[in-house]
Design a protein that fits this description.
The structure holds two protein chains of two kinds. Chain A is mostly helical. Chain A has 25 helices and two strands. Chain A has helices at about 1-5, 20-50, 60-65, 70-105, 110-115, 125-135, 140-145, 155-180, 185-190, 195-210, 210-225, 230-235, 240-250, 255-285, 300-330, 340-350, 350-385, 390-400, 405-420, 430-440, 445-455, 460-470, 475-500, 520-525, 530-565; strands spanning about 330, 335-340. Chain A has a two-stranded antiparallel sheet. Helices cover about 25% and strands about 35% of the residues of chain B. In chain B, the strands form four sheets. In chain B, strands 6-7-8-3-9-10 form a six-stranded mixed β-sheet, with helices on both faces. Chain B is elongated, with a radius of gyration of 25 Å. The chains are: A mainly alpha, B alpha+beta. Chains A and B meet through helix 1, helix 22 and helix 23 of A and strand 1, strand 4 and strand 6 of B.
């Protein structure tokens, strides 16, 4: 026996239990879904970029013809400098605000934080609509912009300002996290050595937040580079890559050049993602488990100036949001500013907005429900089951990939892949289920990482104990894992819901008249000159997202009461 | 080999490699029914890996495992027969203590009343009757580990696996709980394997100890054998305190250590060539200090250089005239410390117990 064993090549393999087979089948299903709805659409962009318009092999001809087109090259240049400028403006502003929130003793921190994060609940182009009401051709403060030497808000100035508002909360969240990860012992040691406040800032605070700053800069740059809504609304004749893709694909049906631009948009996003990933890994190793959290101590002058700054930022946020709300109620801008529900009733009665809003809610609910189920199941199978070792790195990669793929590029891939006449999934094209799937994939990574973090916090031996007690893993999943992770599930669902409500970039390629969602309706209304209705629609989305966020908070509170009693039991 | 087939658990040629790293090499081991065996070794020696292979939580690269006459080598954990307790307790935090203990019972579709009765019986067994409605977070670490033990024993498994069960606990709780585990194991007669890095723990509870190092078994034996007859220099170094002395073989069954001439340990070193390098291990308590007369062999005179006070006893570092440059540590009880006036600078007369010496030939 022993001789036979030593002669047989390869390691022993454990016999799979029937429960293991269920786990393997589920994991394979998740992989298959990610391949079909992520990898293949992306691959078809690459294929399309290398094809001639009649399907032959073009080599790099599409790329060279792109580089020979001065108008497209100028779009590339526009995209790069606008993204860089927005990053340069937003980063210090957001850093200051994050510093005030985490390192000062100013009052009303929760309120300031909430106000600064509100833009996340609105479609990004809301700020562009508001800017037009403020400084546009019929804006109430259009003289103000001229005094700065700008001829008009349309074009680059409008894009830059609107993007700053849209990107601010994203940068803020990253920087707040980076600044809260401070080790108080460093500051105590510095103080004991008689270090000046200024020197502490430059030798401890800034280096500590370095990775957060890099991360925030990369995220800002990519968000602006790939944003579609704002340049569409306020860009005028100022072309950028994101608007080019849309014009090439939808307007001119030039799929090949559209694919080339899509790849161009993908490149900085993938680079950003790679750098960010490396940086994040360093960040986690920086702070040890023994670090003592930093608590700011009151400093009246500093706190007062931080409060003043936060008020300034918050007020401009509110002015931005408030203008769209106000305009949506104004009877006939700018001639009759009496308040009316006309734009809402007209919009809702005029079937377009009403149906679009219902579509949005369906999209968001579907994304939240199925997205949470798929993401959590995938993460559980990945982290807590055994076997199929070769497949697991592939799943990890596929789950991280969506973060590097701008929505516009994903949507482009979906057109190329699902609109292919020979594709058996062709029937899905322009249907709500495909919109849901696309949105789930678009926002997969954040949900996945949230789920993985929660699952990793659970004892790694729960599954081992269950197996030794002959309890199948799915029973333990149902009785233990799910109840413990309910708050996480709610977080993931809320994230999916809000993003599905406000997203434009991916779905703009995939809707049909019957599946048009509200965020797309804003664009159409704006294009049709129905500015009031567009604002009303944006406000509806923001209101809906806010309401749902509040509902989720209430639900979370209720769930805590009902199922998390075991958490707060004190040891005796 | 005749009684091998009657052993409860038999490991044959177990190997485990992670890439090019050999975590376990050719492990052969038998465990008798009802025995309490400890896997003891420094971290990274492969003891936990071996336990997880027995549990089926890892799969050996090669080798066979038989349990109660059944070949379980490639069976998944759910088809093996054992209960397991981890260092982290791994109690389900959202379930009550009773639900935790009943976790494996519920799956067997027994009537509820019967399950409740069994749970209470188990809670009584581990000394926590009536704690069923509590949540794990309401219990102390030691109590939680008792619950984990009750959960592992609930289905009356043939084999109990304990993976460093006491390492996360306070020193006092630890000493207390290890004796409880031991007496519980005696009462139930369940074959038990415990992984530990704490030699005192292993010496105090095990029927047999398996000392492991670098993926191989160094020695298997009773606690007394492991302590007094270490089979390898590693075991001699790892278990207990000891003096390591360099010596040279004289070639006539005698060893020269400094100016001392000592006989080879019984049954060892008869064929040692003259000039062979040898390491001697001497426990600090293996010396004679009382009733010495001039005729006692291996007598030494030494000066106390330093005294380390350890509570009930002390360790004195001695500079010995007949062992130049080889300081010797000797252990004295507190009474001896006063009676013999053991303090820094004191001169003491003592004799080595040559019959307790262990010797190993040095390579090179």
């Amino acid at each position: 026996m022993a001789a036979v064993l030593s002669l047989s090549s390869g390691a022993l393999r454990q016999r799979a239990h029937w429960t293991d087979r269920i786990a393997h089948a589920t994991l394979l299903a998740v992989v298959a879904a990610l391949v079909v709805f992520l990898a293949l659409p992306l691959a078809s962009i690459l294929v399309k970029a290398l094809q001639t318009s009649d399907g032959g092999f073009a080599g790099l001809a599409n790329f060279t013809s792109y580089l020979a087109s001065p108008s497209l090259l100028s779009s590339l240049w526009h995209s790069v400098w606008v993204s860089a400028l927005v990053t340069l403006i937003t980063l210090p502003l957001a850093f200051g605000f994050a510093y005030a929130l985490s390192r000062s003793c100013m009052p009303f921190k929760g309120l300031f934080r909430t106000i600064a994060l509100v833009p996340l609940l609105a479609p990004s182009l809301l700020s562009a609509l508001s800017l037009i009401y403020w400084f546009g051709n019929q804006g109430i403060a259009r003289g103000f912009i001229r005094s700065f030497g700008f001829e008009t808000i349309y074009g680059a100035p409008g894009i830059v300002i609107a993007e700053c508002f849209a990107v601010f909360p994203h940068a803020l969240m990253i920087l707040v996290t980076a600044l809260s990860l401070a080790d108080a012992r460093l500051y105590e040691a510095a103080a004991a050595l008689g270090t000046s406040t200024r020197r502490k800032f430059f030798t401890i605070t800034l280096p500590g937040a370095k990775y957060g700053l890099i991360s925030a800069a990369l995220v800002s740059f990519t968000l602006v580079m790939t944003d579609f809504g704002i340049p569409k609304v306020i860009g005028g004749n100022f072309n950028m890559l994101a608007t080019d893709v849309f014009k090439l694909v939808i307007g001119q049906q030039d799929f090949q050049r559209g694919a080339v631009v899509g790849l161009l948009l993908l490149t900085p996003a993938v680079l950003t993602f790679a750098i960010d990933w490396l940086v994040q890994r360093k960040q986690t190793s920086m702070l040890t488990a023994r670090a003592v959290p930093y608590r700011p101590s009151p400093a009246p002058a500093f706190d007062a100036s931080m409060t003043a700054y936060s008020i300034l930022v918050s007020v401009s946020m509110l002015l931005m949001l408030g203008m769209a709300v106000f305009a949506s109620f104004a009877a006939f801008w700018p001639y009759d500013l009496s308040l009316t529900l006309r734009h809402y009733t007209m919009g809702l009665v005029d079937a377009e907005v009403g149906d679009a809003f219902v579509n949005s809610l369906q999209l968001a609910a579907g994304t939240a429900l199925f997205g949470t189920i798929i993401v959590f199941t995938g993460a559980y199978m990945l982290e807590k089951t055994r076997g199929l070792d070769a497949l697991r790195p592939v799943v990890r990669l596929l789950a991280m990939l969506p973060m590097a793929v701008p929505g516009l590029v994903l949507g482009l891939g979906y057109i190329f892949f699902f609109n292919l006449p020979g594709n058996p999934l062709n029937g899905l094209y322009q249907t709500l289920p495909l919109l849901v799937l696309c949105t789930i994939v678009h926002f997969y990574t954040t949900g996945h990482l949230t789920a993985v973090t929660a699952l990793k916090a659970l004892d790694a031996e729960f599954e081992s104990v269950s197996a030794s007690l002959k309890v199948p893993f799915f029973k333990t999943f149902w009785r233990v894992t799910l109840p413990i992770c309910t708050p996480t599930l709610l977080d993931i669902a809320r994230y999916f819901f809000i993003n599905a409500m406000t997203t434009i970039s991916a779905v703009v390629f995939l809707y049909s008249p019957s599946t048009k969602v509200a965020s797309i309706a804003i664009l159409n209304l704006d294009e049709a000159g129905e500015a009031g209705a567009a604002a009303a629609c944006a406000v509806l989305i923001t209101g809906g997202s806010t309401l749902v966020t509040l509902l989720f908070i209430a639900l979370g509170w209720w769930v805590d009461k009902r199922t998390q009693a075991w958490r707060n039991t004190s040891s005796h | 080999m005749a009684d091998v087939s009657s052993s409860y658990l038999r490991l044959e040629g177990i190997r485990k490699s992670f890439g090019t790293f050999q975590a376990l090499q050719d492990i052969d081991l038998t465990v008798e029914r009802g025995e309490f065996v400890c896997f003891l070794g420094p971290s990274g020696c492969g003891k936990t890996t071996l336990l997880r292979i027995i549990a089926g939580l890892e799969t050996q690269t090669a080798g066979r495992i038989h349990q109660a006459g059944r070949d379980i080598s490639v069976l998944p954990p759910a088809q093996r027969d054992y209960g397991i307790v981890f260092q982290s307790y791994a109690l389900f935090p959202n379930l009550t203590v009773a639900d935790n203990v009943a976790y494996g019972l519920v799956n067997r579709k027994q009537p509820k009343a019967q399950i409740a009765q069994r749970v209470e019986e188990l809670l009584k067994l581990v000394g926590l009757p009536g704690s069923g409605p509590k949540f794990p977070a309401q219990l102390s670490g030691g109590q939680q580990q008792r619950i984990a033990l009750a959960r592992a024993l609930a289905t009356s498994p043939g084999l109990l696996l304990l993976d460093e069960p006491l390492s996360a606990l306070d020193a006092i709780v630890r000493v207390h709980l290890r004796q409880e585990i031991r007496s519980l194991q005696r009462k139930l007669g369940v074959t038990t394997i415990m992984v530990t890095h704490d030699q005192e723990e292993a010496l105090s509870v095990a029927d047999r100890i398996v000392v492991m190092n670098g993926g191989v078994i160094e020695q298997v034996g009773t606690p007394l054998q492991i302590y007094s007859e270490p089979a390898t220099p590693f075991v001699a170094d790892f278990i207990g305190k000891g003096n390591r002395l360099a010596a040279v073989a004289e070639g006539n069954g005698m060893l020269r250590c400094g100016h001392l001439l000592l006989p080879c340990p019984a049954g060892w070193g008869a064929d040692l060539p003259a000039g062979a390098q040898v390491t001697l291990y001497l426990r600090p308590e293996d010396r004679v200090v009382e009733g010495l007369d001039g005729g006692h062999p291996h007598q030494c005179v030494g000066t106390v250089r330093h005294v380390e006070f350890l509570g009930g006893n002390c360790i004195a570092e001695m500079q010995v005239e007949s062992l130049p440059d080889q300081p010797v540590h000797l252990q004295f009880s507190l009474n001896q410390m006063y009676d013999l006036n053991v303090r820094e600078g004191a001169v003491l007369r003592f004799a080595l117990r040559a019959d307790r010496l262990r010797a190993f030939r040095r390579a090179g």
